[in-house]
C-alpha cells in the first residue's frame, strides 16, 4: 500500500513540474524581442505650423527612443518637434523590450522654410527677428577707427586699421546690407558702385583707381540669399549668389567675431592673397552711439602731449633710441669725410638692404608721448651720400629713376595708433636731388602739420621708398630745433 502511495505522489510531482515549465515558457514568450511592426510610426502637422510635426507610435513596449533628424531626440508615444528649414529629414524610432529592440526609419519632406521658428539669438540679432519681416539693414561704421582693417590671414594680428572716414567717396560708405528671416533674403544696395581690392578688378569692367584700391560700377541682383553655418565653434555668414558685404576681396563667407544688436564685427579672407585677412564693422542703419556722460575729473586734466629735446650726434652714449625697420639699420661709425661742415669723429652709418627686403627700409625713433609741435616743428640733419650708391643710366630710364631716388632723404612723423607706415597716418618732408660725396646740412620744416599733437614716432628714410638697390649712407647731428 505504501509503495502505491509513493508512486502516485511521484506522478503528481511530475505533473506539477510540467505545468511549471509550460508557465515559464509562456512568460518567456511575453518577453520576446519586438518585431519591426512595433516600431512603425505616423506623423502629422499641427495647427501651429506645417513645420511643427506630431509623431505617434501606439505599440505596447517598455521604452521608445526618437531621433528626429533635426539634431533633436525625444521619448514617449506622441512627441512633437520643429523643422524651421525646408529639406529632407531622416526620422528613426527604436523600441525596446526586455527581449531586445526594433528600429524603423522614415524620410520626411519639409516643403517650405518657416523662419518664425528660428527664435534664436544670433538670427534675431542679424535680422531683427520675426517682428521685423522686412529684415534688418546694416551699414559700415565709418566713424570708428578700424571699421575696415587688414591683417594676417592665419592669425588675428592687425596690420592696418582704417582711420575714420578714410574711404569716403569710394562707394563703400553709402552701401547697405539687409538680412531678412523670411526666405533668408539678402539685399545689397550699392547705389551704383562698390569698393574692391585691386586683384578683383578683372571681374568689374569700368573699375578705376580710388584711394589705393578701386571703385567699380556694380548693381547687385535681386535674388540673393544668406545662410548661417557653424564650424569648429565659429559662426559664419555666407552670401549666396553674386553678392557680398563691404570691401570685396573675392570671397562671400564671413566669420562672425562679434554679434550684438548694435555691432556685427566680421573677418574674411582675401581670394587673391591668402596671407591676408580683412575686417568690417557693421552697425544698424541710423544707429547713433549713446552719448557718454563726461566724468568729472578728481584733478585738473593735463594735456596728453608735450615736447622734449630730440638730438643725436653719435658721440659717446646714445641720446635717442633708434629702432631698425624693414631692413634699415644705423650704428655709430668713423666719419668717412671729416671736412668742414662736419668734422665730428663719429657719425651714424645708415645701411639700406638691397632687394625686396629693403624696399621700405628706415630707422625710427619711438616716443613714449605725443608730440606738441605747435611751436617746435623744424628738424635739422647732416647727410653724406656716397656716389658709389648711384647707378649709371645703362639700362634705360628706370635706372635714371633709381639714381634720383637714391639722392633722397625723408623725415616722417607718425601716429602709431593709426596704423604704422600707412601714408594717411603720417606727415612727411622730403629733400630730393641731393649732392653726393659731401656733407649737407638739411632742414625739415613741419609747420604745415603744426596743428597736430598726435605724433609719437620720428622716421628717417634715405634712398627713397620702393627702391630695391640698397645703399650705405651717413648722417649726423639730428636735432629738433628750439623755438
UniProtKB/TrEMBL annotation:
The keyword Signal applies. Residues 65-110 form the PKD domain. Keywords: Signal. It holds the Pfam family PKD_4. Residues 1-22 form the signal peptide. It comes from the Bacteria. The keyword Aminoacyl-tRNA synthetase does not apply. This is PKD domain-containing protein. It comes from Chryseosolibacter indicus.
Amino acid at each position: 500500500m505504501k509503495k502505491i502511495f509513493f508512486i502516485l505522489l511521484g506522478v503528481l510531482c511530475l505533473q506539477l513540474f510540467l505545468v511549471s515549465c509550460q508557465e515559464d515558457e509562456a512568460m518567456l514568450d511575453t518577453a520576446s524581442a519586438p518585431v519591426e511592426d512595433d516600431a512603425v510610426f505616423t506623423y502629422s502637422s499641427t495647427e501651429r505650423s506645417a513645420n511643427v510635426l506630431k509623431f505617434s507610435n501606439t505599440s505596447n513596449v517598455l521604452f521608445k527612443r526618437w531621433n528626429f533628424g533635426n539634431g533633436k531626440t525625444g521619448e514617449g508615444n506622441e512627441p512633437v518637434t520643429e523643422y524651421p528649414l525646408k529639406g529632407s529629414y531622416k526620422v528613426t524610432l527604436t523600441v525596446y523590450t526586455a527581449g531586445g529592440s526594433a528600429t524603423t526609419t522614415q524620410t520626411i519632406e519639409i516643403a517650405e522654410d518657416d523662419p518664425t521658428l528660428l527664435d534664436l539669438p544670433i538670427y534675431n540679432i542679424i535680422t531683427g527677428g520675426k517682428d521685423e519681416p522686412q529684415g534688418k539693414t546694416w551699414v559700415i561704421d565709418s566713424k570708428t577707427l578700424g571699421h575696415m582693417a587688414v591683417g594676417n590671414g592665419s592669425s588675428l594680428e592687425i596690420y592696418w586699421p582704417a582711420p575714420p572716414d578714410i574711404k569716403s567717396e569710394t562707394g563703400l560708405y553709402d552701401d547697405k546690407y539687409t538680412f531678412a528671416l523670411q526666405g533668408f533674403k539678402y539685399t545689397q544696395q550699392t547705389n551704383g558702385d562698390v569698393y574692391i581690392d585691386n586683384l578683383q578688378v578683372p571681374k568689374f569692367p569700368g573699375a578705376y583707381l580710388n584711394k589705393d584700391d578701386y571703385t567699380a560700377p556694380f548693381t547687385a541682383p535681386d535674388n540673393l540669399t544668406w545662410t548661417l553655418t557653424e564650424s569648429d565653434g565659429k559662426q559664419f555668414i555666407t552670401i549666396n549668389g553674386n553678392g557680398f558685404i563691404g570691401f570685396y576681396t573675392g570671397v562671400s563667407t564671413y566669420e562672425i567675431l562679434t554679434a550684438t544688436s548694435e555691432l556685427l564685427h566680421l573677418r574674411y579672407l582675401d581670394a587673391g592673397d591668402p596671407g591676408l585677412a580683412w575686417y568690417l564693422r557693421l552697425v544698424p542703419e541710423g544707429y547713433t552711439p549713446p552719448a557718454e556722460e563726461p566724468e568729472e575729473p578728481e584733478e585738473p586734466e593735463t594735456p596728453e602731449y608735450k615736447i622734449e629735446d630730440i638730438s643725436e650726434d653719435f658721440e659717446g652714449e646714445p641720446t635717442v633710441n633708434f629702432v631698425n625697420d624693414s631692413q634699415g639699420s644705423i650704428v655709430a661709425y668713423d666719419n668717412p669725410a671729416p671736412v668742414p661742415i662736419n668734422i665730428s669723429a663719429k657719425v651714424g652709418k645708415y645701411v639700406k638692404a638691397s632687394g625686396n627686403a629693403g624696399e621700405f627700409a628706415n630707422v625710427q625713433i619711438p616716443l613714449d608721448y605725443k608730440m606738441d609741435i605747435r611751436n617746435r616743428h623744424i628738424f635739422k640733419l647732416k647727410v653724406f651720400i656716397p656716389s658709389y650708391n648711384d647707378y649709371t643710366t645703362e639700362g634705360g630710364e628706370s635706372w635714371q629713376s633709381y639714381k634720383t631716388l637714391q639722392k633722397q632723404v625723408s623725415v616722417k612723423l607718425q601716429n602709431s595708433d593709426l596704423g604704422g607706415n600707412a601714408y594717411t597716418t603720417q606727415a612727411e618732408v622730403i629733400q630730393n636731388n641731393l649732392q653726393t660725396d659731401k656733407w649737407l646740412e638739411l632742414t625739415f620744416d613741419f609747420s604745415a602739420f603744426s596743428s597736430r599733437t598726435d605724433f609719437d614716432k620720428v622716421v628717417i628714410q634715405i634712398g627713397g621708398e620702393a627702391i630695391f638697390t640698397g645703399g650705405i649712407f651717413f648722417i649726423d647731428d639730428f636735432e629738433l630745433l628750439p623755438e
